[in-house]
């Protein structure tokens, strides 16, 4: 297996792209559907905010506490809360030794711990995909640098395509047929069970 690269720069780019989209969310948008089955935009933003806080806590050695991963209802300023959580995780990932730290990821199972390098790869692919989810929900364009998307493809390819994807509330659906074209975003979306034609499916 190839060593997972240091994805902190790419992760920050993806997170900041999502922040720019969240800044455009209006209160009346929160009930919009999203490509995440069962989640409206409010639910997706609450999940994304909680994940930032959980990963930030885990980077600091506090990820075993389930409360830091708890999804909370959106407050009066979802964009401000999301931006605050985003800055927390960006700062936490910037620590000089974070790639070698062990991250507790209790959502993957009791006692699960993975090296920081792998944990950040999980976070990175989540925010590439969830950025697209928000953009699609808002009917806005979504663009990330081509080299970043190329880097994300093997991360998406490595996600197990098994029965866990059928569980309620899971982030990714079973894989769809992989397109033959060379568009890396199209490939990533198919790998995580998203149809690029949503919501016209």
From TrEMBL:
<dbReference type="InterPro" id="IPR017517">
    <property type="entry name" value="Maleyloyr_isom"/>
</dbReference>
<dbReference type="InterPro" id="IPR034660">
    <property type="entry name" value="DinB/YfiT-like"/>
</dbReference>
<dbReference type="GO" id="GO:0046872">
    <property type="term" value="F:metal ion binding"/>
</dbReference>
<protein>
    <submittedName>
        <fullName>TIGR03086 family protein</fullName>
    </submittedName>
</protein>
<dbReference type="Pfam" id="PF11716">
    <property type="entry name" value="MDMPI_N"/>
</dbReference>
<dbReference type="InterPro" id="IPR024344">
    <property type="entry name" value="MDMPI_metal-binding"/>
</dbReference>
<dbReference type="InterPro" id="IPR017520">
    <property type="entry name" value="CHP03086"/>
</dbReference>
<feature type="domain" description="Mycothiol-dependent maleylpyruvate isomerase metal-binding">
    <location>
        <begin position="14"/>
        <end position="135"/>
    </location>
</feature>
